[in-house]
């Protein structure tokens, strides 16, 4: 048994990649300390992560497999309580996970993905039109003005949430991913998002619509079972949070990567590479989700001389997967859309693979291609080193993305 001497994770997330490299070098599983003094096993190598994501001895259900949570040792105001207190397909195990995923999967059809394409094109155009009023040379925060609103409003449309309700919920989501919050703020977050989702569900029961919330309210299994009220509330919030925050960070990272590698941007513009190449390389080298709390060992798990004891929490580092030199060699940390192997696990792997991956890729392709068509001379307004990371080890993005638009091509002039 490895001596329990945890490494304290940097809650400010100032250099998640360097931290992952250090943890990976320490072994297949490294004991770390989370906020509140909670210990977990950090996994940072591609091979081990890929295996554990499909290992039936690993669960995401705290209520079934984390003794400290079950016994009340994890307080209700623990800084990360929102991530483990959910009751939905993300935190379900075994047959319950299969049941919930089948119910939720009914709402993520290919037809729905294609049906929202015109709305994505429309909203992208509206956001870029609004940027056109920026005075020449003025600095614009493209995270706030484009990377954030595009995916957030699309996901709000999908679940049938008004822009007013989204604005109120956005602050809760921002606090939830912040790993520097206080216990008091953590308790406020949990109550805040549950109240917001309850209001949304009540409105959809009163006035059903063509949206995922309405579909989930109505969804039934073959045996007649439905989502419980808690499952419904927590599932809709998971869709909102996962669908918006990850795509916001994707846009942030993709725009940054292309502006700091102009030769690769030019390659895409000239047809030497595709937007799919860009999407997969960004997801590989800058996974928008850094680490997703938490998984748990259903029984003792042996990993090359390291034992993760039954019931211990496990923290999977998605941002470390594509940067593992064992998978991508000495250039693993380099952004290169021409590399043949862009393997990543940014949409997950195995039974928890992201149901919304198709929608996310569609929004990413339309958003990026249209942005660079409309603003071909877009440039960073600061040096890359001046970009400040989000204060979290859960998400991977920047606090702001200051750019200069320079000139624009009128809407419709480019060949989208």
Automatic annotation (TrEMBL):
Entry's family note: Belongs to the cytochrome P450 family.
GO molecular function: heme binding; iron ion binding; monooxygenase activity; oxidoreductase activity, acting on paired donors, with incorporation or reduction of molecular oxygen
PANTHER family according to UniProt: CYTOCHROME P450 YJIB-RELATED, P450, PUTATIVE (EUROFUNG)-RELATED
Protein name according to UniProt: Cytochrome P450
InterPro entries: Cyt_P450, Cyt_P450_B, Cyt_P450_CS, Cyt_P450_sf
Domain of life: Bacteria
Keywords: Heme, Iron, Metal-binding, Monooxygenase, Oxidoreductase
Lineage, opening ranks: Bacteria, Bacillati, Actinomycetota, Actinomycetes, Streptosporangiales
